[in-house]
Every structure is written in structure tokens, then in C-alpha cells.
UniProtKB/TrEMBL annotation:
The chain crosses the membrane at residues 118-140, 168-194, 215-244, 256-275, 309-330, 350-381. Residues 48-86 have a biased composition (Pro residues). Residues 34-47 have a biased composition (Low complexity). This is Membrane protein. It comes from Nonomuraea cavernae. Residues 102-370 form the DUF7847 domain.
Length: 445
């Protein structure tokens, strides 16, 4: 029976059964809220939407209710809430994903521990070459230092600078040799690192056999970097030498001006050197692992650092600070004893003993710090490729294939060639398909 308003017992008041949507009777929603449902008494009117609301479309392209047992990504069973993502694949010294600072430092330590003979043996030779010039420079500076400690003997300006040149000249020569040696060592250790990423090992002889063909290109990088680093330093040295020769530094005011110019010049040069050190930090890995020439490798390093310069510089600076303190702990006892021999002893034997002690301390310190610097540079190179080229997809695909085969094939070394980057095979990001990022046909069966 109608109540005169066009409604029926099955139609809520205010809704006409004859009116089409959006004015007709509301349709039952296919979605129900989770939780305990309250039973509706038989014949009770259901609450409909307000008159101005649009009822749902009769046909939905997708189901509004998830299938039974559906669990959203990143969540555990019902009632357990979010769960962490599964860990990244880690067949070797690093996880195969973009690396954090802890991953880089931990991977460097694992690199040294996994190949101690190859890494520390090569580093010991490199450290000895870098420590000898410091010891020789200290040996020649002991006479000047003993004279400066005697208050009854006047010291001229040129004598003061002779002592500084003898003391710090050997240090600069050692830094130059260390730069060359560390660059070459980085190239050799990068070859070991390229295998250690997949859990493989390599002897020093095998690493040298694989790297020696790239030594001319590595020396090319060293030569270009030497020009970049030495030109402003030689200009500063020329200015200081001109002031000394002209006699402008003989007066007290001239000496103060000379010291100020020296300090300001060294501070500016430090910023200059750090900038180019960060920009070309990946040149050696690009030469060894990608087979590039010197100029192309430096251009490649500049490109990889672009977009993440401050992070690369910060990690390199932090590494340098850590290396400095680590080397100091090992070198300080030998340096103190050697300096006492050199300053207090009057014979040539005491001076030679002092030089030997200083060389031993420097060798021990550098034997651990050189591979640490080289390892950090190599892992930073891998990190930048993973971040900018989705190279982690290539490494993951290769690691899965190697795990299937049960061993690390030597052809894994060729994966570092830029033609195998995911970005060069059509992938646009780290979320692409690994199968399309890197071919696995290069692995031996």
C-alpha cells in the first residue's frame, strides 16, 4: 500500500522506485567493511545515501573487494603489520644494491680479509716505495733541526727554508710517489674487487696478468693528474722562491708576509686538489674494468661523479681521515724513536738508524691504508654505476646465474664493461627487469 508519497515498504522514505539513478533507490554496495557485522532485523529499512549522493556504477572494471588471502606488498599475515623488505642478494663482499657508507667500509675490510696475500703483498711493495723518500728527507733535515735548537747559533732565512725543504721535500716526493703507486695499486686491486663482488678470489699474479695490459693507460692517467696537481703548486713555489731571492723576506715584515702567502696558497691548493681528486677518483677503475684510454677514463670519472659530488668527496675525505689516524697509530712509535736517534745522536750511524725506523713505520702504516683507500674508491665506483646506470640489475642477474652454476666464472670480469649496463640495454631505472638488463650468455657453462 502506498502512503501517498510514492514509496513502498521495500523503498526507503524519500526515494521513488520509479526514478532512475541518481534519484532512484540506492544499490547494494559490493564492498563491506572488515570486522564483525551486525545483523539487520528482518524487514528493517536500511540507511541509504543522502539524496545528493551518486550511487556506485552498476558495473565496475575491477573488483572492489580483494580476493581471499590477499596480503598487500610489504605486509605480513593479518594482524602482524608491515614487514621489512627481503635482504638484497650478497654473494660476495657487498650487497648487490646501491651502497651506503657502512656497506662501502665493510666491503673494503672484507676485500682485504678475503684476499690477504694478494692485497697486503702488493700494498707492502707500494708502501715501501712511498716510505723511503720520507726517511731520506728526514735524515737530511736532522742537521738543520739540531742547529735550530741551539740558541747561540743564528739561523738565516735561507737556512730555515733549507731545513723545511729537507723535511717536507721528502714528504712531497713521497706523496707524489704514493699518488702514482696508489693509482696503479687501485687498478690492480680493482681487478681483485671485481671478482670479489661475486665471492670469487684472485691471486696477485693473476691480478697482475689481467692488469698489466692496462698499465700504460694507468700511467697516462697518472701523468695527466700530475699536470693538473703540480701546475698550481709549482706556481706557488715560484712565487715563494722569487720573494726569497729578491731579498724581500729578509726583514721581519717580509718574513711574516712570506709565511702568510705560503699558508694562504697551501689552503687554496688543498681545496683545488680535493676537487680534482674527487672528480677523477674513478679514472683508474674505468681504465682497468672498462678498458678505456686515459682521457676517456677521466671523462668517464667526471661523468660518474656528476650529480653526487659532495657525497663522493665526503666519503673520500672521511676515508682519508680514518687512514691518517690508522697510519699514525702504526707510525708514531717508530717516528718518535727515530727522531730521538736523529736529534740526539751525533754519528752517521744514528742518523741512518733513524731513517730506517721512520721507513719501517711508514711502510707498516701505508701497507694497511693503501688498500683501504683503493678499496673505497673501487666500491664507490661500483656504487655510482648502480645508482646512475642501474648496474645492480646486471650484477644480480650475473650472481643468480653463477649461483646456479655453482662457481664464479672468469667471464664475470667482463660484466663491468659499460655495454652491459642496464641503462644501455633499454632499462630506465633500478626497478626494471633483470632479465632484460644483462645477458647471461657470456658465462661459461
Amino acid at each position: 500500500m502506498s502512503d501517498g508519497h510514492g514509496s513502498t515498504p521495500e523503498t526507503p522514505p524519500g526515494w521513488a522506485a520509479e526514478q532512475p539513478p541518481p534519484y532512484g533507490a540506492p544499490q547494494a554496495s559490493p564492498w563491506t567493511a572488515p570486522g564483525p557485522q551486525q545483523d539487520t532485523p528482518q524487514g528493517a529499512a536500511q540507511q541509504g545515501p543522502p539524496p545528493h549522493a551518486r550511487p556506485p556504477y552498476p558495473q565496475q572494471p575491477y573488483s572492489q573487494q580483494p580476493p581471499p588471502g590477499y596480503v598487500p606488498p610489504g605486509y605480513g599475515p593479518p594482524g602482524y603489520g608491515p614487514m621489512p623488505h627481503p635482504p638484497a642478494l650478497r654473494p660476495g663482499i657487498i650487497p648487490l644494491r646501491p651502497l651506503g657508507l657502512g656497506d662501502i667500509l665493510d666491503g673494503t675490510i672484507k676485500l682485504i680479509r678475503s684476499n690477504p696475500k694478494a692485497v697486503l703483498g702488493l700494498s707492502a711493495v707500494a708502501a715501501l716505495l712511498g716510505a723511503v723518500p720520507v726517511a731520506v728527507g728526514q735524515m737530511f733535515s736532522f742537521d738543520s733541526l739540531r742547529a735550530s735548537l741551539d740558541p747561540s747559533t743564528p739561523v738565516a732565512t735561507y737556512q730555515m727554508y733549507d731545513g723545511l725543504v729537507a723535511q717536507y721535500g721528502g714528504l712531497f716526493v713521497s706523496m707524489a710517489i704514493s699518488f702514482v703507486v696508489v693509482t696503479l695499486l687501485t687498478g690492480v686491486l680493482t681487478r681483485i674487487l671485481g671478482r670479489a663482488v661475486f665471492g670469487g678470489t684472485m691471486t696477485a699474479g693473476e691480478a697482475w696478468q689481467l692488469t698489466r695490459g692496462r698499465v700504460p693507460a694507468l700511467f697516462g692517467v697518472v701523468g695527466l693528474m700530475a699536470v693538473i696537481m703540480l701546475v698550481p703548486l709549482l706556481a706557488l713555489g715560484g712565487i715563494i722562491a722569487a720573494l726569497i731571492v729578491s731579498g724581500a723576506a729578509e726583514s721581519s715584515g717580509g718574513q711574516a708576509a712570506l709565511v702568510a702567502i705560503t699558508l694562504v696558497g697551501l689552503v687554496l691548493y688543498l681545496g683545488y686538489a680535493l676537487f680534482f681528486k674527487a672528480r677523477f677518483a674513478f679514472a683508474a677503475p674505468a681504465v682497468v674494468l672498462e678498458g678505456r684510454g686515459p682521457i676517456d677514463a677521466m671523462r668517464r670519472s667526471w661523468h660518474l661523479v656528476t650529480g653526487d659530488f659532495w657525497r663522493v668527496l665526503g666519503i673520500l675525505l672521511l676515508t682519508s681521515v680514518m687512514v691518517f689516524f690508522l697510519a699514525g697509530i702504526l707510525e708514531i712509535p717508530f717516528s718518535i724513536i727515530g727522531s730521538l736517534f736523529g736529534l740526539l745522536g751525533e754519528s752517521s750511524g744514528a742518523t741512518i738508524a733513524a731513517a730506517v725506523l721512520i721507513a719501517v713505520g711508514g711502510t707498516l702504516g701505508a701497507m694497511l691504508t693503501y688498500p683501504f683507500e683503493a678499496g673505497v674508491a673501487g666500491l664507490l665506483y661500483a656504487d655510482r654505476r648502480m645508482r646512475s646506470e642501474a648496474f645492480d640489475l646486471v650484477l644480480q642477474t650475473a650472481a643468480i646465474e653463477q649461483q646456479r652454476q655453482g662457481w664464479v666464472h672468469a667471464s664475470a670480469d667482463e660484466l663491468w664493461h659499460p655495454s652491459n649496463s642496464a641503462s644501455s640495454t633499454g632499462s630506465t631505472g633500478s626497478t626494471g627487469s633483470p632479465e632484460s638488463a644483462s645477458p647471461t650468455s657470456s658465462f661459461g657453462s
